[in-house]
Specification:
- This protein is mostly helical.
- 75% of the residues lie in helices and 1% in strands.
- The chain has a single domain, classed as MFS general substrate transporter like domains (Growth Hormone, Chain: A, Up-down Bundle), CATH 1.20.1250.20.
Length: 415
Amino acid sequence: MYLTLRDRPGGKPDPASRSRVVPRVATTVFLLGIVSLLTDVSSEMVNAVLPLYLTAEMGLGVLAYGFVDGLYQGVSALLRIGGGYAGDRSNQPKWVATVGYGLSALSRVGMLVAHNLGAISAVVTADRLGKGLRTAPRDAIIADASDPKGLGRAFGVHRTLDTIGAAIGPLVAFSMLLLVPGDYNSVWVVSSGFAFVGVAVIVLFVPNHRTKVARRAQSIGSLLREVTGARLRRPLIAAGLLALFTVGDGFLYLSLQQRDHLAAKYFPLLYVGTNLAYLLLAIPFGRLADRIGRTKVFLGGHVALLCVYLFAAGPFSGGVATVLVLVLIGTYYAATDGVLPALVTPLVDAQARGSGIAAAQTVVVLARFASSLAFGSLWLLLGSAHALYLVAGLLAAALALALWLLRNREAPVTA
């Protein structure tokens, strides 16, 4: 399963090379990456046009978009713990994840008949419930199929494939709206097709990679006490605190569009820029996290986010400034999205791996839900620039506190 960098002549391994073992990324990780790629093509086709669809096509304001974005960010928390627990308890993580992917695929079809805020909110809720159900079991499979020394790299490879889909999705939506302006129904139909192909791949090709350790029956109460124990408590608080001051991408892109007077048809390309940066940086940052420490990379990603707020709200405008903001957003995701589960995994028992990852992700999405609702109100009260400056100051204070919370909390990595 693992490849060494150097062997002695004669076939005997060099003892000094034992510390230079390069874990091979498991085939299961690549297969799940393909599933995520197809699913993200589908979801990002919708996500890339949704802000404009709501504000320009349907005539809703930023507060209404803040509500929908809050649902998008936070409603998955309702099932994340349940999904992680179901995967752990049943030892059938593949099939729990499959149900989640299927629910999201069905929600794409719902966009064809959703023509008001309530209907769109219901569709977004169904999509995010599917994401909440599938994420922790899927990440638990990745963690169990990978060597502990290469968790950051394994999650980085998965997130890279995921992000390829996230970059393709807005391009497909942009091309379709460029050819037929305003034909959102075509976007929803093609999006549904990609989602159902992703479900087919996980059903037909992804093995049901079960936890290798012996199982023991656990109640949900005992499991929750385990995943919120002393080792995990401070990382959970730190992750939630930082997420509380994480502004949704849609708000950042709307701010850039208004500042630069960007034509509506080019709006999906903003998502492409971010995802390309994420794509290029996910694996390097995953490997960096394995080498220098996952806490350092995780906090560094939030420093990049702080710079996003300052540049997005600042007086600089134009193409160069916009590209810089998009690169920084991609940097933030590359340094945090896959690094957080890699940071949490060694802190929980293998039998509660999915639930431990789910606990961290639940805290983050609940905090982002509150952040989206609050930022929509701040935008109306202060304007986008002043609201971003305020959140930047709060994030800087949160970073200082998170640094203290995460000090000496990273578990030593052992094979």
